[in-house]
Write a structure and sequence with these properties.
0% strand
Amino acid sequence: MLSNGDIDRIADAVVDRSIDRIADAVVDRSIDRIADAVVDKLEANSLGDMKRDIASMAEDVAKIPQIEAEIRQINSRLENIEERLP
């Protein structure tokens, strides 16, 4: 038969282990949440950077027809100058 002292020691051990398990679970979950938040922020920043880069590239691509037209005008002027040369 267990004495009252034995029962108290067992109860203390159970409570201590339970508290340790609860504390470990809280820490583990906190670490997971922090890690998830960091990953989310990094992904958001990377996605934001990528979106800005893509938008910038789209603007550059949109300028291509204008640049091509300017090149044709320059070529035309050069041809006119060449025709005038002796």
